[in-house]
């Protein structure tokens, strides 16, 4: 892109502006707060390890990605790179450790990523117009080291189109690229405050249902927490309607109108959400800076993957700069069993995409208004 990055006059080592140098206009690469610490991953039970080993061998045997839309073909290097150990485990947890279901869902996602164009259609230039007003921002990290993904529906600047859904998926992919070692979930912060200068054009329930389906199906186990403020009555009604169909563990991650400083260090929390991070969105500065940071992070991960042997099943912690590799498996503990998710550390899957989407379809037919498509997905994602 031809746009140059406008940097603050003086910055700290982490890329934050020095006090008195003006608001931050670009993202920064690592948490700055000493209170941001990722949770440790629980070790696998002996039975879970066995199921993972089976799924890993299946993934290693894949040579073709199926497609009915002209996208079929050999498994690419980037697809092998995507099939990490943690990726396989997320699909196993989402299917309650059903190996066959996890295998099918992984293959379905590989097909979807090709057909949706995650790697080639959703480019920086294609998505850029959607973010000119800063309706989605990635800046700062919560107390568990998760990147903070801000949604600002009041800054809506485009008419309803497929690119609005693509925008969310594109930004979610960028959040994943910015995750530090030990982190695999996102922190979603949503402010429904209306803008005085821009017309808020909330997409319909059908568009929201599409994003919801993509998230539940192709990004399982990715929601860490959703913090939501200034909720209008229309969205409250939507939440109440779908609450019975949201998995209880997911429901616990939705926090409404709470002090966000409980979950995000105030120095990492944007002032518009009650924190002390002085941030001002300037698309000409932010967008190329985010692109540069994400491309550097991805290139670093790719280099480590190649240096480690280009394995399917590599550890994401290693790729993000940690020490553990695929050959350094954690010792499995036989005490836990799959019978109890609490005992194994596995989260039960949501009650099912079919239940939720059928309910939303009923809502649409009855003419009950829904919320913004940028917000709905996170509320029903399997955790």
Automatic annotation (TrEMBL):
Location of the region described as Disordered in the Swiss-Prot/TrEMBL record: 1-47, 322-354
GO MF annotation, one: phosphatidylinositol transfer activity
Recorded superkingdom: Eukaryota
Residue ranges annotated for the CRAL-TRIO domain, each copy included: 126-281
SMART domains: CRAL_TRIO_N, SEC14
Biased composition (Basic and acidic residues): 37-47, 322-331
Compositionally skewed regions (Low complexity) per UniProt: 332-350
Membrane-crossing segments per the record: none
PROSITE patterns named among the record's database cross-references: CRAL_TRIO
Regions of compositional bias (Polar residues) in chain numbering: 1-15
GO cellular component: a single term: cell periphery
Protein name (Swiss-Prot/TrEMBL): Cral trio domain-containing protein
Annotated source species: Coniochaeta ligniaria NRRL 30616
